[in-house]
Every structure is written in C-alpha cells, then in structure tokens.
Amino acid sequence: VSIQQDTNRLPGRPAEGQGLADILERVLDKGIVIAGDITINVLDIELLTIKLRLLIASVDKAREMGINWWESDPALSNGGAKAGDLEQRLQRLESAAGIEAKGKRGRD
Amino acid sequence: VTDHAVYVYGVAPAGVAVPLDTQGIDPGSALETVESGELVALVSGVDEAALERRVEDAAGGELAAVEPLLRAHERVLSRAQEAGAILPFRFGIVVRNHDDVRRLLDERGADLRAQLDRLQDAREWGVKGLVARDALEAFVTRQSPVLDELAREAAEGTGSAFFARKRLEQKLDSLLREAAADVAATAHDRIAACARDAAMNPPQPRELSGYADEMILNGAYLVERRCERALAAAVSELEAEFADRGLHLELTGPWPPFNFVDVSAASASAG
Fold it and tell me: CB A38 to CB B88 under 8 A?
C-alpha cells in the first residue's frame, strides 16, 4: 500500500494539486530575502507574491485575523517611493480578483 | 544567450555534501555549489529574461507558468535538507554571477551562520487541522441546551419564530467559532510543546486547500529530529481526543525551515 493510497482515505482530502498551497505560502511568503544592489530585481515578482498571497488567504480573511502581510513585510514595505506604485497594483489586482477594497488601507 | 544569471536556493554550512542531483528551476542548468568562508550556497544558472517572462505571465493570472518553478525551488531545498541544515531563500533571488554569490555569503555571513546554528538538528513540520462541520455542530448542540430551546421556538408557527430562527443561527455560529478556536489553540499549544519553535499561519481557504472541511489550524513547527516521534504521537492523541468534534489533523513535512528564518535580519544591511 503506497502512501498515496493511504492518504486518500483521509476525510476531506483534496483530490489533486495537494501541497500547492503549502508550497506557495512557504516559497513566496517565507524564506530569506536578500535586498540591495547585490541582487537582480526580477520584475513583477512583488506583484506575483502579493497576488498569490491573496490566493492563500483572501484579504478580508487576512484582515479578520489581523494580518496585513503586504504592510508589515520588510521586503515589500521598504520600497519607499515604490510603495504607492505597489498600492495601485494591489488595488488593480484586488478588483481583478473581485475583491472589493474596503476603505483605505492603513499605512504608516 | 548572454543574460545568464545565477539563481540562489539557499545556504548550508560549508562541508555539508549537498546533493546536486535534483532538477532545479531550469531543466537546462544543473545545480551547483558556491563556497565562501564557512558557508556554501546552492545555486543554478538561470536565463533571467525567461524567468522574468514566466513571472510576468504568472502575475497576469497564469499561475501554471510558475508552479513548476515554485515546486522546483522547494524540492531542491527539501532534498538538500537530507544532508543537513539548510537556510531556505525566498523564491526569486537572482544575482549576476558566482562572484556576487561569494560577496553575498561574505557580507551576510555572520547572520546566515547564526541562523543556521538555530536550525541545527531540527526540521520544519506542518500540521493542518480540519473540522467536519456536522460533527462539531452535533458536539456544540450537546453542550449547549440553549440551542434546543431556540430551535423549539423557531419551529413554532408564531410571528416570533422568525427572530428565534435568526437568534439560533447567530448563537450556533458563535458557538461553532468558539469551539473551533478552542480546538485550534489546544492543538497548537500541545504540538508546540514538542517543538523548538512554532508558528501559526492563517488557515488556507477551501478553494486553495482543496479540502471540503474547514481548516481551523495551519501551524508550522521546528522539531528536533529526536522529537519527531513525539510530534507524531501528539498529533494522533489530539485527533483521538477531539474526535467528538470532528477534528482531523494532517501532518506534512519535513519541510525546509521556511517558517523559521529571520527574514528581516538578512535584508536589513542591504546594499
């Protein structure tokens, strides 16, 4: 009996694509970030990260739990001049994802 | 192609024989190690422009464009962990060449080494808690006679039945939420007792988790290898103990210790 067959007996087990959510929340949301002139900026990776975070936990759900990753993450919020740009892109994403932006996002 | 850059997966202590037989993010580029000081970085060549296109497509809605890359990033680090401690980098860290990798290892060496020390002899495990709503509802109903009263009121054909039904819904909802939070907190604390460090992440939404049942716990635990049996035992015990509440726990791992690296420390001295 393979592990696969074993796990298929578990209640509520996802049929396929299992583990993708676990991988997304780790490789895009955690792990060492190297910022600065040593690294090459892969364009749009911040956008991708934010988008996938919205997938992992919807904005409302995240806020409900007191989580605002995109505001507290040093990799994203230290952007300085880029913060406004990021904000706009996030809003576009939210509306594209059908998520109503409720009020203004708190910032400091 | 001239724009060949170097993709960095993570860092291990020098001297660890990191396995290089895993396929990285680019099938055409084999894994390599770059060593400096007491550290070794796990890297592979990457066509930066091609990576950028994939990320762009993914950001535009084609998640499938990066899924294999995300999986490869995790797979390389998981395999590396079989040889010893590994410090996982976030997806998408690219530098120009091997010299820059060495520069990175030298400039951040102290912090990276300190973090590796904290991860020694331990691995990350995930525990997801799912509850079957009908079982939890049955439990809550047994525990709270007030629900029966409200249900009887709601069943009456009178004008107040409508409001009784509303109150019943609200009461049931809050009791379910309390019960779920109680189970999640107890499970997290009990599992964390087996761990060197613990983190509670937001439960994954159904659309992504693929589970029919609601996720109430999404924990990550840094567990010493000698304590892994205790972890598995704690998970089984909890599941048995909360069977009357429809709890199912799923243990995943071992994972590279993504949840237990200090992101800010390494990025603080940027540039």
Answer: no
The overall average pLDDT reported for chain A is 56
Determine what percent of chain B falls in helix, strand and coil, rounding each to the nearest 5.
Answer: 50, 25, 25
CB pairs under 8 A between A and B: 170
Read off the DSSP letter of residue B122. E
Under an 8 A CB cutoff, do A23 and B70 touch?
A: yes
- Residue B131 near chain A (CB below 8 Å): no
The radius of gyration of chain B from alpha carbons, rounded to an integer in Å, stands at 24
Tell me the two tokens of residue B161: 């039945």
pTM: 0.79
The rounded distance, in Å, linking the Cα atoms of B34 and B18 is 11
Question: How near does any CA of chain B get to the CA of A19, in Å?
Answer: 8
pLDDT tens for each residue of B234-256: 999 999 999 999 999 999 999 99
Give residue-wise pLDDT tens across range B50-79.
998 888 888 777 778 888 999 999 999 999
